[in-house]
Write a structure and sequence with these properties.
The protein is an all-alpha fold. The chain contains 2 helices and no strands.
Length: about 50
Amino acid sequence: MDVLTSGMAENSSIKVHLLESAAHMRLMTVGIILLLVMRFSPRGILPER
């Protein structure tokens, strides 16, 4: 998140908000990845033999 906000001013409210919500964005990203795996690979990442 520091890379994305490096060009913003230090006291920018948008920068502060993005840095504070980084943990929530990480959780949402993991959830989206899991949904995509279940949608496009219903047998899972490591299917049973």
